[in-house]
Amino acid sequence: MPTHSKRITGITPSGKDGWEVHFAAMRKKLAGEPILMLSVGDHDFDTPEGTVEACVGAVRGGYHHYIQLPGLPRLREGLARLSTECTGVDTTPDEIIVTQGGQGALFAVCQGVLDPGDHAIMISPYYATYPGTVRAAGASFTEVDAQAENGFEPDIAAIEAAVRPNSRLLMINSPNNPTGAVYSRRTLEGIADICRRHDLWLLSDEVYWTIRADAEHVSPRALAGMKERTLVVNSLSKSHGMTGWRVGWLTGPAETVRYLTSLNLVSSYGLADFVSRAAIEAVEHGHGVREIAERYGRRRTAFLESITDLHGVKIRGSEGGMYVMLDISAIDPDCEAFAWRLLEDEQVAVMPGTSFGPSAAGHIRVSMCQTEETLREAAQRLRRFVARATGARSTAVA
Fold first, then answer.
1. Which of 142, 160, 214, 225 minimizes the C-alpha distance to 182?
2. Helix H segments across 114-228?
3. What is residue 321's predicted lDDT score, i.e. its pLDDT?
4. 187 near 156, Cβ under 8 Å?
5. How far is CA 204 from CA 81, 122, 238, 290, 373, in A?
6. Which of 4, 48, 157, 285 lies 20 to 30 A from 169 at CA?
7. Residue 112, Cβ neighbours under 10 Å: how many?
8. Looking at the whole model, is its pTM more than 0.85?
């Protein structure tokens, strides 16, 4: 058999992608076990009805054909308005390219600015696909640990120390998945200064910008000298309740968008017409945006209140996004073993922190993508599990 390319075999070189606990939980759930699925960032509710009806109407109306590679003009106009709101910088449609979900935008950035042999810097914890997406571009990377004790806010000196002569790209994510950390303006000013001095591209993943509780969202695109070097990854998946529709977009310089249109030509050949028209409806009318943000705020509050004073567990980050990050290292420093036992003993599925980089070791990520009632039940099961674990350890020590 002929060999496969190094680009493909190198995406997950260890053979593990960090999602093993989640996939095992899914199998159990499909087999009929009453698993509480708090491992994945997919809404438990359907896409808002207005968006769905727009899609049905588009399908019945004959919108089944190829569209413009960077996206329908009206959709790009709507997304430009959203990007203006998100980043605080006036954005034009020619600075927008529509992609196959936020992951499509992330892939486009790495393909667009990294050559084989180039170097990227990513802040850990990170969204789980970051390393593989950089490897797929033939580049290497350095992970800069954001410390849990600092609320997973990155250290500017540590980022500076990671810069190499062949560094081309710095990758950040705020509000952060998995930690829920929202980077401060001071931190982002420090990051911008590094990018300007070392002539780096900045990938700013702002997918969760509408789900940020009371924290201020600052886009580095709005900082001095950063519009021309910042590439903002965004998506309708979380903000508009459209995870399975695969509509993302990238905001960047018009020249970059023109180059990435050629990438669309040889990769996706653009989005589906009827899906694009549903996205126009969602964007122009804001279907679900306020309600989704408020819903996750209530869920986060309900869960955090339910685990108050949980012995041996500390809350880290968790200011925004759809997740809560829990430090369980005092109970078991092996967060993967903790997650497996929680699944087996209490039928609660969470993600081990190491799925998102070594700096999240000793943590678990809990998704808020279930009802408040389910989250409170999960908190009680977690409390029961921790009590047994700490009790058994105390007995062993005695």
1. 214
2. 130-136, 156-162, 185-198
3. 86
4. yes
5. 18, 11, 16, 23, 34
6. 4
7. 20
8. yes
Q: What pLDDT shows up at residue 87?
A: 97
Distances (CA, A) of 62 to 70, 73, 76, 283, 327: 21, 18, 21, 21, 52
* Phi–psi pair at 333, nearest 5 degrees: -65, -20
Alpha helices in the chain (DSSP H): 6-9, 20-30, 49-60, 73-87, 101-113, 130-136, 156-162, 185-198, 254-266, 273-285, 289-306, 335-346, 372-397
Q: What is the DSSP letter of 236?
A: S
Q: What is the mean pLDDT of each run of 10 residues along the chain (398 residues)?
A: 88 73 95 95 94 98 97 98 98 98 98 97 93 96 94 96 98 93 96 98 97 88 98 97 97 98 95 98 97 95 93 89 94 96 97 91 95 97 94 50
- What is residue 391's predicted lDDT score, i.e. its pLDDT? 78
The one-letter code for the residue type at 165 is: P
Token match 């309600």: residue?
Answer: 291
Q: How far apart are CA 195 and CA 121, in angstroms?
A: 11
Count the helices and strands in the chain (H runs, E runs).
13, 13
Amino acid identity, position 154 = P
Q: Could you tell me if 338 and 331 are in contact, meaning their C-beta atoms sit under 8 angstroms apart?
A: yes
Q: CA 238, CA 321: separation in Å to the nearest integer?
A: 9
Beta carbons within 8 Å of 217's beta carbon, 6+ residues apart: 86, 174, 175, 182, 206, 209
DSSP structural state of residue 347? -
As a whole number of angstroms, the distance between CA 228 and CA 249 comes to 17
Q: Give the integer Cα–Cα distance in Å for 199 and 185.
A: 20
Name residue 345's amino acid.
D
327 Cβ neighbours under 8 A, 6+ residues apart: 148, 313, 314, 315, 316, 362, 363
Distance CA 148, CA 113 (A): 30
Can you read off the two tokens belonging to residue 295?
A: 């819903």
